[in-house]
Structure formats: C-alpha cells, structure tokens
Amino acid sequence: MKNIFRKIKYFFVGYTYEQKEGTKKWQFELHEIIFESDTFKGKIFDITLLFFISLSTLIIMLESVQGINHRIGFWLYILDWWVTISFTIEYVLRLCSVKKTTKYVTSFYGIIDLISIIPTYLSVIFLQSHYLAIIRILRLLRIFKILKLGSYINESNALLISLKKSKRKIFVFLYFIIITTLILGALMYVIENKYNSENFSSIPQSMYWAIVTLTTVGYGDVAPITIVGKIIASGIMILGYSIISVPAGLVSAEYTRNKKIHLNTQKCRFCMAENHEPNAKYCFKCGHLLNEEFEESKKS
Amino acid sequence: MKNIFRKIKYFFVGYTYEQKEGTKKWQFELHEIIFESDTFKGKIFDITLLFFISLSTLIIMLESVQGINHRIGFWLYILDWWVTISFTIEYVLRLCSVKKTTKYVTSFYGIIDLISIIPTYLSVIFLQSHYLAIIRILRLLRIFKILKLGSYINESNALLISLKKSKRKIFVFLYFIIITTLILGALMYVIENKYNSENFSSIPQSMYWAIVTLTTVGYGDVAPITIVGKIIASGIMILGYSIISVPAGLVSAEYTRNKKIHLNTQKCRFCMAENHEPNAKYCFKCGHLLNEEFEESKKS
Amino acid sequence: MKNIFRKIKYFFVGYTYEQKEGTKKWQFELHEIIFESDTFKGKIFDITLLFFISLSTLIIMLESVQGINHRIGFWLYILDWWVTISFTIEYVLRLCSVKKTTKYVTSFYGIIDLISIIPTYLSVIFLQSHYLAIIRILRLLRIFKILKLGSYINESNALLISLKKSKRKIFVFLYFIIITTLILGALMYVIENKYNSENFSSIPQSMYWAIVTLTTVGYGDVAPITIVGKIIASGIMILGYSIISVPAGLVSAEYTRNKKIHLNTQKCRFCMAENHEPNAKYCFKCGHLLNEEFEESKKS
Amino acid sequence: MKNIFRKIKYFFVGYTYEQKEGTKKWQFELHEIIFESDTFKGKIFDITLLFFISLSTLIIMLESVQGINHRIGFWLYILDWWVTISFTIEYVLRLCSVKKTTKYVTSFYGIIDLISIIPTYLSVIFLQSHYLAIIRILRLLRIFKILKLGSYINESNALLISLKKSKRKIFVFLYFIIITTLILGALMYVIENKYNSENFSSIPQSMYWAIVTLTTVGYGDVAPITIVGKIIASGIMILGYSIISVPAGLVSAEYTRNKKIHLNTQKCRFCMAENHEPNAKYCFKCGHLLNEEFEESKKS
Predict the structure, then answer these.
(1) Which residue among A57, A222, B214, C299 is least crowded, i.e. fewest CB within 10 A of its CB?
(2) Are B159 and B255 in contact (CB under 8 A)?
(3) Residue D214 vs residue A11, higher pLDDT
(4) Where are the bilayer-spanning segments (chains A, B, C, D) (predicted)?
C-alpha cells in the first residue's frame, strides 16, 4: 500500500528509486529527507529549499538593477554565493543519497539542479554569465510535488502529451511561417531598401520585421514607408491575423481527443483493444461482449 | 408564489433577506424602496441611483482632464462631494433597512458600496486617491438586476463558473508564462545590456519587455538591437503567437462542458439512452415517457 | 417556377416586389432593368453600376492624396460630380420603378443608395464631408446578388444570425472590457501622472491606453515608465492576451449550434416539435414515431 | 507492388510519370537519379540538392548584409552564380529525363524550379531583382518527399483542403475587413487630417492605419491624436480584438469535419450504427462483423 504511494510520488519526481539491499541506512534516511516530503524533516527541507530558490531568483533580479546594485550590491553578492554553495552541497548530497546516480543525473530535475549552480561558478571567468543562474527558477517546479498538487501536474502532462502528439502539425506550421517570412522579407528588402535603408538594411533584418508583423507584435522600430511596401505589409498583417489561432487550435483538438480517450476506460478482455466508443457494448475488434467491464466501470 | 419571485430577486442582489418578526414597518418600507425595484418608488430610486453613479463616474473623468478642470473644476468638485455625501447617506440607509447587517456589509455589493465612497473622503489627506472613486462604476452592475436582465447574469455566471473550474489550468498557464518571461528576460539582459543598456537596463525591465513581446502587444519602447537578441525576440514572438488562444480555449472547453452537463440530466429508464433534448418528455430512442425522471430533475 | 426564382432573388435584394395591377408597363420594364439581372439589359446595367461604384471609390481615395490632387484634382472633381449625379438619377429611377416606394426607401439598400449621394452635395457647404461618400462602397455588396453568389450571402447570413444570437454574451463581454479599462485607466492615471504627465494626462487618455494595451494593439505612443505602472501594464497585457479569443469563441459556438440545428431536418407530424437528436426515432415531446419523415430525409 | 510505391511517390512529386516504350535507357536512369530517392545515387543527388538550396539561400541573405558584402561580397557573388548555373543545368537535365515535358514544366515543382533561377539572370539588367532568387527556398519543400515524410505532407494537404473548402467564408471575411477598413479609414481621414496631417495624410494612408490597428499589430508609426479619433480607434481595436480568431475558427471547423468524415465511412448492416472507430472490425453496438463494408471502403 505504502509502496504504491511511493511509486506514484516517484513518478512525479521524474525517476524511479527503490530501496534495495545495497542501500546503506544513512543513504536511505538522507533520501527520505531530500527526495520525500512525507516525513516532518522532509517537509522542512523542501519548504526551506523553495524559500532559497525564490530568494536566489530575487537576488539575481535585484543585482541587475543599477540603483540597488550600487547600494547593497556587496551583500547581494555574498548572499548569492552563499546560496549557490548551499545548492552545490545539496546537489552532492542528492548524488550520495541516490542509488542509481546516473538515473538522477540524467533526469529532468537532475539536469536542472546542475545547470542552476554552474553559471555562478562560471561568473568568475565570464562576468555576465552569472545572471543565467536565474534558470534555477525551474527548480520551483518541484512545488507541484511538494504541495502534493498532483492534479496540476496531470494538467501539465496532458498539455505536454497533446503538444508532443501535434508536433508534426506544429512543425509544418513553423516551416510555413519561416518560409513565408523569408520570402516576404526578401521582397520587402528589394522594395524598401532604396528609400528606407535604415530600417530594411538587410534580408535578415527584413525577416525580423516580417516576423514582428506576422505575429501581430508590431514594435514599430521597423516600418515600411513606400506605398508598395505598405500594401505588402497590410497583406502580411491580415495573413498573420487570420491564422493566429491555428497552432493553438491544432493542439487543443489533440487535447480534446486525448480527454475523450481518457474517458473510455473500457478494455476488451479478449483482444485487449482500447479506445472503445463511450456507449460501446461490443468490442469493435473481436466482437466480444464488453458488458462485464462496462459494469465495473460504472461502479467505480 | 410571490415569495419565489422575491427569492430569485434576492439571489441576484447577492444576499438573502427575509422579513421576520423583528423588522419594523419603516425598515421594511425603506428596504422595499432601496433594495427592490418592483414598486413605483423602488423603480424611481433605482433609476435615480444609476443616473448618479454614471454622473459621478463622468465627473471624476472630467476632473482629470487639465483643460476642463481649469475652467469648471470648482463646480465639478462641489458636485463630486455632493454625490459622495448622497452615496454615504444611501449606504447608511441601506445599513438601517437591512435586518442582518453583517450579511449586507460582507456581500459583494455591500463591499462595493463602501469602497466607492471611501476614496473621496481620503482625498482630503491624499489628493490623488480621489480618482480611485471611479471604482463606483462597479455599482452599475446593479443595472442587470434593476432592468430585470436575469439572463445576462446567467451568462456572466456561466462564464464565472467556467473560469473557476478551469482555474487550475489557468494557474499552470500563468506559471508557465512567468517562468518563460523570467528566463528569457534574464537571457536578453545578458545579451543586450552591453549594447543597449537604456532599454534592457535590468532583469525586471527585460521581463517587462518579454511580457510585452510574448503577449504580442509590442509597444516598441523597448526593442532588441543585437542580432542574437533579435533572433531570441523572434522566438518569443512566435511562441506567444502560437499559444495565444490556449487559455481561452481551456475556458471555453469548460464552458461547453458545463452547458452540456446542464442539458443532459435525463436518462431513459427503459433503454438507458442519454443526451436527450433539454425539454424532452419522451425518449427519442424507444418512445417511453421520461416524466418521472423529469420530475426528479426539477425537484433537485 | 419562375416565380419562385424571383422570390428568392427578391429575398436577397432586401424587400419584396410583385407586379400587380396598378404597375404601368414602363415601370415594370424599368424595374426589370434596374433591380433584376436576368435579362441582357439588366445585366449590362448591373455591371455598369458595379464599375461606377468601384470607379467612384477610387476617385475619392485618389482625391485625398496630396500629390495626385495637385496634378489631376480638377478632373477627379468633375468625374466625382458626374458619378454622383448619375447615382442621383439612378436613385430617382429606382424610386419611380418601385411600386411600394416606402419599402424600398427603408430597405438596407435603399438607405445605402441615399446616403452614398448625400455627402457629395453636402461638400458644397462642409468641404471635408465629401470624403464620407466612400460609404458607397457598401453598394458593392450588390455584387453577391448580381454574380448570383447566393451561397456567399448564406455564409454571411449564418454569421449574422450567430452574431445576433450571441449578442447578449457579447454585450456582457464589452461591458466587462469597458469597466476593466475604466478602473485600470484611473488606477494608471493616479500612478503614472506624476512622473509621466504627457502620456497619462487624464483618465480618458489612460482609458485609451488601457484599451490599446488590453487589445494587444500596443501603439507605444503611450507607455508606462514607473515600476508599479509597468507591473499593472503587464497584468493588463496578460489579461488581454488570455481572453483574446473569448468573443469569437462565443460566436463560433453559436455558429456551430446553428449548423447542427440545420442538420436535424426532422419535424414531428403530430406535435410539430423540431430539433430532434440526429439519430432520434421517436419524437422527444409526444413519443410518436418519426420514422416516415426519417425515411424521407434519408431519400433526399 | 513496386509500381504502387512508385505511384505514391509520384503523387508527392506532383505529376505522374510512367516509363513507356518511348523512353530511352539513359533517360530512365537520369530520371531515377533526379526524381527518385530510392537508389543510392538518387539519395546522394537529393541530399546534395538540399544542401545547395540551403547554401544558396544563405548566400543571398548574407549578400544583403552591408558589412559582410563589403568584405566577402565578391566570393559570395561567384558562389551565387555557380549555384545558379548548377541549378540551370539541373533544370535542363530534369527537362531531358522526363517524357511528358509539359507536365513537369506546368507542375508545382516545375514552376518553382524555373522561377528560382530566373532572378539571378535578370540581375544583370535589374540589380535588385537578384535577391528575389530567395524564392528557391520553396524548392526545400522537396525535403518532405526526400526524407519520406509522407505524413507531414498529409497534414499539409489536410490543411490545404480545409482552406479550399472554407475559401468562401474566408472571402466574405476579407471582404468585410476591406470594406470596414476603407470606411473607417475615410472617416479617420476626415477627423484627423486637420490636426494630424502627417500621419493621416490621405485615405489610403488611413486605410493602412486601420489595417494596422484592426489586426492588432499596432506599429505606432501612425496614431490618432484627436479625442474623436481616439474613440473611433478604440472601437476598431475592440472590433479587431473580438473577431481575431474567427477566420481560424472557420478553417479549423472545416478541418475537424474533414477528419471526422475520413474516419466514419463504416455503417453496420444490422443495426445501422455509425461512427465506428477507424480500425473497427465489429459493430460496437450489436457485435456483427463489419468486414464486408470495410473491404468496400478500402477499394474506393
């Protein structure tokens, strides 16, 4: 029973872990504290962790603000290093407590945990790289696990699965966007360059303008001035405006379909076929009665 | 019969009120005028109220316009105070006429009624706060009740329920937006700050830019100038453009589901057919009466 | 048979006309030419009309361009008056040929025909009003009738019906937008006015900014500069971005429902109930068999 | 068997080709290399082709960048001509290897292949035309055929078919957009021209502004300054914002319908149940075999 709960939890952590013969006592306890959030110690650890991640993100943001940096920059610098070193120690402890080290290191959180400490160390050499440590905000995704917001994760997963399933359509869509902006960008370059060489200074610059326009962002830092250019620009705008909800529509269609599949919990006992119609009585593959399982699904 | 109508009306007012033994005659009459709109006096009161709310909003708007304020500012000031004092008296009368005072005070309209008079009084101390009195526009929502536009309220409620039900998905979506803009903002700060320190002066400023870009607003007050910056900006634009109708899609999916659930409560006792028309009396499949279940669904 | 075709055609013209005893011969012939497009003369007339409408629109556009106006303004002026006088003669002829004059005058095209000649005459007094004659482009809608593009009109009608049916939802939505922009506009005025009095010079101006931002247009002519202002602006952007496809979603839901209703052509012979389920065998209202009509609908 | 595969392949190439008596041996072999990608030689040819298309696009883009053109413009010029001449030779070879020359020349790829070499030759006379050679990026669409990404093509085709089917609705929508922007543009010209003659200098210019605003692009290079102008602008923004996903909604509705039609061709002969799973063999309602009809649907 307890085992099942743990398994589900591990599912959200992103890698599987099972205490086997080889695990030492301290490893197991450490693991309980760092990776679990059932015990009191584990809860304390997790909440402290979330606090430090948030604090650390805030520090990096504040350090980048000139006015604040001039006044309390030194203290932020100290705090930042202190948090980074804490994170490093935590990473090492995580490595120690896990049996299958490679599994953790290559898991989603394993990678995030590592790349959220590297930039600060790199900042000794490349000063600016330090700000990239803000990627540690991704560690905050653990909040879903810690606060037992499993249903939130389900929502995210459902979206991710829909995204994966419709990746082909999205690829075709992006391909279309890139080719369109490339051709229209070159066309606008030829038309506008003579009269407006500052704005449409090169084809890549024109492509940038075409993307800004097609996506209806419209900064206005680059804008056509010739009549032909404005006519073409109008065309791009109307095109972009017309296809604006196509990609989301593709994904949401997939999302709806997934939900539907999820509803049909029936599975034929004879040929193991799934995805039956919601009101199906007979298996569409082998023709056997689905009734018994139908009854079961009604009870639950 | 009359009681039912009153109950429905109270539903729209936002709190329940029932004349009990303890209520005095004048209280009841005052309540009829202020809270009800059936009687002639009540109608006059409500329409006067709507007029003064609109007038008051207009006054505040005009007071903020320099040119107008110079010429007729004094008269607007007098009018504004006069309306505010009237609203205060009305609020006190409302308090008197209601039996369960706390119920009114903590209801939606009770809170709105209060905070729509406070800013004017506060303006004696904090001059600018006076303009916040524009929140009294929310009192205009009473128009739905007064003009007996119950169906409009139903529409609003249906939307609100859908919003509530999909709040988890919206939360995940906003979380995704914030994390994305934070990371991309920091990245752009590192890339652009050296060449474009005015626009990308800090990470919060870069985040602001990322939100402006991702939401396809694109003011153009902050825009990238480096090549790498423009490439990343293009990526953000295409991302924002691609997911633009995701949140609305989530809510509308919920909305459609709600509507559907609302329609389908009947189920034929003989052939178990579902998804009957909302006003169906007979099963569309086997022709049996649906009455008994129809009655049940009406009671609940 | 011919009568039916004429009736359908009259439906698209926007008013009914039937040759009765009182109509004179020349009236009938004139009507055939001006209002019909079956006969050769009628066709010639209609195509000439479309040509002159397009020409007239082009003239008005060209007149407004400084460079062109300087050179050939006089000839455009002559042409414009000539077209307007022709349209006036045409309008008088239409009035003569129609039996029920008031029906034509109050019909959609009757009004358009009139207001497309008024601005030019008014331009003798108010110079600028002349450009408003561009409203005659609406006369081009006749193209659907002339080119017998009935199905296009059906599409438009289907959209219009959906719009009308969802007008309540749209009203609530617009109400929400206006209240939101009003309150946020006032808030931004209080916050930004001190530091940025040029951009946020008054509450109406701030409301304008709020609409520009909420609709994701983002001109950038007005933009916040304070930190609190930018945070609130980000909120408005994300709000506007999130609800962007809500109104279209509401309309399209209505559109889909209309289409569905259109599919269920069954009608009970006993109680005249419509809108049966697509696979219904029995009337959901009175329980009678729908079979016979079901068979009919299958044949057709 | 092999014939079927070839036929499918030809489907993607865009024209049919069948080796008949008249074809010479070298023609057939050349065809195998140039048009097919099954053989080793064919694969090598295709990958080389994709590489040169990409290279050529990159060259044109780089040539347009001032800084790069100054330094290595000469070499890019040489490379560009070399690629263009190679493409010309390839085009001639394609002409030779195909039996039915006109079929190839008039096919989609035949046209693209030709117009992707013309601009470079034209650039001897019109210097700028050279950049239009970027249209050769469309030749990259062959990647779907070469990498055997048939399913990608299916997605594209499904989208194209939906577009074609909803072209009437799109036409009505565009007509509506153009008429709206024309009338509102003229109105804004009349209102704004007196005070803001730089921005709203003519009706076409005002129309450009109306399109920029309606599509929510909002460059900000043209913006209203009068109060009435701002009110109308707000109206256009809210209109544009409200109908933003209408065109995509129309197409996606068509897309969903197409998909559905594609799935549901089976119908049970015994209980007339429809909407079977795409791979269903037995009726989900009564359990009868669907085979016979399954076979039929495969043949057609």
Answers:
(1) C299
(2) yes
(3) D214
(4) 44-62, 74-93, 105-124, 170-191, 231-251
Is pLDDT at A15 greater than 60 in this prediction? Answer: no
Asked whether residue D19 falls in the same domain as residue D143, the answer is: yes
Which residues in chain B touch residue C234, judged by CB atoms under 8 angstroms apart? 208, 211-212
Amino acid (one-letter) located at C253: A
CA distance D269 to chain A (A): 14
Q: How confident is the model at residue D176 (pLDDT cuts 50, 70, 90)?
A: confident
Domain count, chain A: 3
> What type of residue is C54?
S
Of C126, C42, C55, the C-alpha closest to C87 is C55
The answer to whether residues B173 and B232 belong to one domain is yes
Give the span between the Cα atoms of C174 and C180, in whole angstroms: 10
Give, in degrees to the nearest 5, the angle at Cα D239 between D238 and D243.
Answer: 115
Q: Is the pLDDT of residue D59 over 70?
A: yes
Query: What are the CA-CA distances from residue C7 to residues C93, C154, D118 (Å)?
Result: 22, 16, 55
How far off is chain D from C231, nearest CA to CA, in Å?
A: 21
CA angle C280, C283, C285 (to 5 degrees): 135
Mean pLDDT for the stretch of residues B14-38: 67
Alpha carbon distance B46, B49 (integer Å): 5
Percent of chain C with pLDDT over 70: 71
| Whole-number Cα distances in Å, B101 to B107, B142, B180, C77, D177 | 10, 19, 47, 73, 54
**Contact: B281, C285; criterion CB under 8 Å:** yes
Partner chains of C (3+ C-beta pairs under 8 Å):
A, B, D
Do residue A241 and residue D282 have CB atoms under 8 angstroms apart? no
Average pLDDT over residues D275-293: 58
Phi, psi at C134, each rounded to 5°: -65, -15
Same domain membership, residue B274 and residue B173? no
Using CB atoms, pick whichever of A227, A234, A284 lies closest to residue D276. A284
- Any idea what the CATH number is for the domain that residue B164 is in? 1.10.287.70
D122: pLDDT strictly greater than 90: no
Which chain A residues have a beta carbon less than 8 Å from that of B193? 128
* C249 found inside a domain: no
CA distance linking residue D248 with residue C244, whole number of Å = 13
Place D298 in a pLDDT band, splitting at 50, 70 and 90.
Answer: very low
What mean pLDDT is predicted for residues A163-191?
A: 85
Residue C265 pairs with which residues in a beta bridge? none
Least CB–CB distance from D182: residue in C137, C211, C221: C137
Which chain D residues have any C-beta within 8 angstroms of a chain B C-beta? 216-220, 245
Chain A nearest-CA distance from C198, in A, is 20
What does residue D289 show for φ and ψ, rounded to 5 degrees?
-65, 140
Cα–Cα dist B289/B283, whole Å: 6
Residues B202-218 pLDDT 10s: 899 999 999 999 999 98
- Would you say residue C113 lies in a domain? yes
Output Rg (C-alpha) for chain D, integer angstroms.
27
CA A210 to chain centre: 27
Comparing CB atoms, the residue among A168, A220, A284 nearest residue D284 is A284
| C149-173 confidence digits (pLDDT tens) | 666 666 667 777 777 877 777 887 8
